[in-house]
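Posting for a labmate who doesn't have an account.
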Amino acid sequence: MSKSLNIHTFLHVNFEGLGCIEQWIAQNGHFSTFTRFYKDYQLPRVEDIDWLIVMGGPMSVTDEQKYPWLVQEKEFIKNAINNHKTVIGICLGSQLIAEVLGAKVYPNKQKEIGWMNVQLVNSSAVLDGFEDKFAVFQWHGDTFDLPDESTHLLQSSVCKNQAFLYNNQVLGLQFHLEVTEESLNLMVENGRDELVQSETVQSETAILEQKNFLKSNNDKMFQILNNLIRQ
């Protein structure tokens, strides 16, 4: 049996939580702590954590004047990577990791919001057992270049860099495999102004009608977390 991990999570808004990852943590007997940057917050000591999970949010990595805590957050992420912690970034989290690793983050040509396919680019133990193409939940306007020495894992027709792995223990995911029915409803409720329908932005109705994808997305999130433990 693997040891219990101290898993620390960075939260940027109150409507983008861990989703199904919370269930995985509880089921596997790991310990969970949080830094909520939208409240009075405190950062842990990097030596006290095993994993760092960096969640999403509507802000950009460049919004340091509006959100001064981004400076401290980036410094902590860099420190965690340098101390060989497992680091997982989701959406904004993946963009923060990419920037910390020296890659450029910038607006994508089109926003990508809704259930859309991603395609496998390179095989990796982290994605062991995944099919070549599958639907994921997207909600982003920015994208990133791949960090040097990282492996490009997934792409979509709208956004080339959807996932990368750095040094076998730092994973960036542009999309939301963790989303549950509850967290999906919260994201829609808090982001309705962005749902201006287009080729790459689905309507609220279309998003909520495709909840059948939730289970396969959550199963994939669990697979990734289990595969990272095995790494």
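Reply:
Got it, the structure tokens are right above this. The chain has one domain: 6-230.
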